[in-house]
């Protein structure tokens, strides 16, 4: 009987694996950002780098930090071909200003487009430490409202296409912008 | 090692010394008695009886007294759960405990309880209500002296619980809080009809403090065997009886009990052979 007991103890203690679950692991997929890739309008299969793009949310004074290593204005600028921007988790639409050639000394080169993303959202449980995350789905009608600033000027984003209407993770491209 | 050996031997010599001395004194005594009795012949039988009297009690001591173990039912309550409601506004609970002595060392043991607990995590606030039952056995590994009835035990329990869980409020985790950290959202969603089962390893102590009243303390390590999840979208954060759940299937608990022993019958202890 004592042997059985010790065996049981052994089984129970080895099978119980302790895992730390008080801190939300940074690798856990939580609320995803909207992933936008930029493509060449004249060659739709080739990615194109933007030039000093700054993205500011409506009502915000500071842009989204793309370059956390830099200081000052440079941290808000990106020259890559892909960006990830957070959507509002407490509203069904988010409006951003996309400013191309931001900070350029020649004001005529600075090009601003405003894009509103319309979506529905769903809160999904992640874990005790992370709480919930919000997943987004673009509405079928008018998921994107796109205007130039000022409205008379031509839009620098020539085509915006929704690639994925479900925004569930950041591993895929949700929006393609051709310019 | 060498020193202990040395001391051991010197201790042995010391004992041997006493032994020899003891024999000497009795020897001298008997010789002196003999010398005395030489003069007084009629008194000799009286002395003999006196001698017998002195020997008899020694013989009585060497006989093992009949030791009887009491068998019966022990019932009580967990003071920790009972009193926690006084200082923790998020907790209400009670646990009744009981055990029945089957053999010299084995006890059938059970706990029956009810809990109502609100868990306040950083991002989640949930309320769990439910009842639980744990059934199993304790093995008393403590060899009591004389009529002591203390218990140092190790045991196993199988536990089941039926409960409901209400999500009071939650926070959205956003690794990129550009739009600011959002406040908690109220939910109020209730998941009822939940069940869970687990195995507990119990290490416990019970001490007789007064007549048939015992106080005890036990530590429990739990392994969750199964649990019915509230939905695909949620999980059980607290299970009555099992306590807080972790990412694995591990759990832990304890109780602090006061119990009353109801003796039902007595059994003579058989002396152990080969000792």
Pick out its properties:
heterodimer; A: 179 residues; mainly beta; 6-stranded antiparallel beta sheet; 4-stranded mixed beta sheet; 1 helix; 10 strands; 8% helix; elongated; B: alpha+beta; Porin; 8-stranded antiparallel beta barrel
Layout: helices, strands, pairs:
The complex is a heterodimer of chains A (179) and B (275).
Chain A (H helix, E strand, L loop, with lengths): L1 H14 L18 E6 L14 E4 L24 E4 L7 E8 L10 E17 L3 E8 L5 E6 L9 E4 L3 E2 L7 E4 L1
Chain B lengths: L1 H38 L4 H19 L5 E11 H9 L3 E11 L4 E15 L3 E17 L10 E20 L14 E26 L2 E15 L10 E2 L3 E2 L5 E19 L7
Antiparallel strand pairs in B: 1-2, 1-10, 2-3, 3-4, 4-5, 5-6, 6-7, 7-10, 8-9
Largest interface: A-B, 41 and 32 residues
Taking pLDDT < 50 over at least 5 consecutive residues as the criterion, the unreliable ranges of chain B are 11-35
Residue fraction in strands of chain A: 35-45%
Binned, the helix content of chain B reads 10-25%
User: Describe the biggest sheet of chain A?
Assistant: 6 strands, antiparallel
Q: Assign a percent range to the helix content of chain A.
A: under 10%
Annotation field: number of helices of chain A: 1
User: Distance between the terminal alpha carbons of chain B, to the nearest Å?
Assistant: 27 Å
Note the overall shape of chain B: elongated
Residue-averaged pLDDT of chain B: 80
Listing every helix as H and every strand as E from the N terminus to the C terminus, the arrangement of chain A reads: HEEEEEEEEEE
- Strand-pairing-aware structural class of chain B: alpha+beta
What CATH architecture of the largest domain in chain B would you give? Beta Barrel
Helix-strand sequence of chain B: HHEHEEEEEEEEE
Integer tally of domains of chain A: 1
**Alpha-carbon distance between the two ends of chain A:** 78 Å
Number of helices of chain B: 3
Q: How big a fraction of the residues of chain B is strand? A: over 45%
């Amino acid at each position: 009987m004592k042997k059985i007991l010790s065996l049981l103890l052994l089984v129970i203690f080895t099978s119980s694996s302790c895992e730390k679950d008080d801190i939300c692991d940074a690798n856990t997929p939580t609320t995803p950002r909207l992933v936008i890739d930029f493509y060449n309008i004249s060659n739709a299969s080739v990615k194109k780098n933007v030039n000093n793009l700054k993205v500011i949310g409506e009502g915000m004074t500071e842009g989204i930090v793309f370059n956390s290593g830099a200081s000052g204005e440079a941290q808000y600028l990106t020259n890559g071909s892909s960006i990830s921007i957070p959507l509002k988790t407490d509203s069904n639409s988010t409006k951003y200003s996309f400013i191309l050639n931001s900070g350029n000394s020649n004001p005529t080169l600075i090009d601003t487009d405003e894009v509103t993303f319309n979506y529905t959202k769903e809160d999904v449980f992640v874990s005790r430490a992370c709480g919930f995350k919000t997943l987004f789905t673009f509405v079928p009608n008018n998921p994107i409202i796109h205007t130039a600033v000022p409205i008379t000027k031509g839009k620098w984003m020539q085509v915006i296409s929704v690639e994925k209407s479900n925004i569930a993770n950041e591993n895929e491209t949700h929006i393609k912008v051709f310019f | 090692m060498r020193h202990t050996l040395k001391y051991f031997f010197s201790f042995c010599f010391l004992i041997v010394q006493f032994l020899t001395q003891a024999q000497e004194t009795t020897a001298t005594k008997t010789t002196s008695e003999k010398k005395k009795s030489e003069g007084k012949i009629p008194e000799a039988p009286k002395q003999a009886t006196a001698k017998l009297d002195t020997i008899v009690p020694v013989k009585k001591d060497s006989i093992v007294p009949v030791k009887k173990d009491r068998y019966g039912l022990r019932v009580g309550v967990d003071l920790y759960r009972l009193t926690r409601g006084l200082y923790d506004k998020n907790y209400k609970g009670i646990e009744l405990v009981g055990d029945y002595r089957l053999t010299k060392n084995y006890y059938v043991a059970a706990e029956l309880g009810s809990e109502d607990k609100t868990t306040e995590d950083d991002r989640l606030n949930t309320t769990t209500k439910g009842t639980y039952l744990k059934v199993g056995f304790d093995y008393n590994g403590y060899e009591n002296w004389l009529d002591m009835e203390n218990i140092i035990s190790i045991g196993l329990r199988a536990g089941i619980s039926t409960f409901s869980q209400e999500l009071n409020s939650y926070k959205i985790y956003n690794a990129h809080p550009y739009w600011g950290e959002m406040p908690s959202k109220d939910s109020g969603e209730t998941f009822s009809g939940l069940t869970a089962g687990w195995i507990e390893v119990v290490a416990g102590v019970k001490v007789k403090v007064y007549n048939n009243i015992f106080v005890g303390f036990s530590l429990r390590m739990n392994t969750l065997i199964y649990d019915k999840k509230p939905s695909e979208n949620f999980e059980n954060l607290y299970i009555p009886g099992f306590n807080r759940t972790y990412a694995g299937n591990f759990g832990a608990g304890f109780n602090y009990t006061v119990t009353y022993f109801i003796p039902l019958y007595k059994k003579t202890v058989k002396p152990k052979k080969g000792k």
